[in-house]
Design goal:
about 20% strand; seven-stranded mixed beta sheet; about 220 residues; alpha/beta
């Protein structure tokens, strides 16, 4: 089994599916990660962000190693401006990765996230992974991103209502270790992107299925 994670920014993969990634790799499955946006350029649009970009990339490589995933691929498209990139460009980039590694399962963002890059990434994945007899993709799952998924107004878009849970009681600590590599992106408790909040969310998702920890997803497509 080959798995592809398509995330908008470095750290989204660990936030949304880090423990599930570790579970895949510990089972001997190959996991590839594709980042569409650089994750830093919107913070100082007029300045030189090369040093910050290199730190973010290095953190992503360290996190991938902790999770057991392959070295990530970086497109370095403009941060928080994926809506300025033609959808055809985004979808083709994902299509190329799908053709390269032939994943049977793809994880990506939820369609209703507050962050515009997350929403564009979701659309690109759904376009690239549209069902056909030649597509290797059997399953598309959407993860939740703390400080984005729950911050979108329920009046603006459908809420994240998980329909697929992965028991990660054995890999939650690996997820937290991978997130620690993104120290600059974490925030102090009670911010939802604090290590404490992320663990609390995993414990709550686990409690809903009778486990000590879980990651929750919305099933976008599944072919048996």
């Amino acid at each position: 089994m080959t798995v592809l994670i398509v995330a908008a920014h470095p750290d989204d993969e660990a936030l949304g599916a880090g423990a599930t990634i570790a579970r895949h790799t510990q089972s001997g499955e190959k996991v590839s990660v594709l980042f569409l946006a650089d994750g830093v350029s919107s913070r100082n649009p007029e300045g030189d962000h090369e040093e910050e970009l290199n730190r973010r990339r290095s953190a992503a490589i360290v996190a991938a190693g902790i999770l057991g995933a392959d070295r990530p691929s970086f497109l370095d498209l403009p941060d928080n401006r994926l809506d300025s990139v033609p959808m055809l460009t985004l979808a083709r980039a994902v299509e190329e990765e799908v053709e390269r590694i032939h994943p049977s399962t793809v994880y990506t963002h939820h369609a209703s996230d507050l962050n515009v890059d997350h929403r564009c990434t979701h659309e690109a994945v759904m376009t690239a992974c549209r069902p056909s007899t030649t597509s290797p993709v059997d399953t598309v799952l959407c993860f939740e991103s703390p400080s984005s998924t729950e911050w979108r107004s329920a009046a603006a878009a459908p809420a994240f209502n998980p329909t697929w849970f992965v028991d990660v009681r054995d890999t939650i600590e690996t997820k937290l270790a991978a997130l620690a590599a993104y120290e600059e992106e974490l925030r102090p408790w009670p911010h939802p992107r604090s290590l404490e909040a992320i663990e609390h969310l995993a414990r709550w998702r686990g409690a809903t299925i009778g486990s000590t920890a879980a990651e929750a997803f919305v099933l976008a497509r599944h072919r048996q």
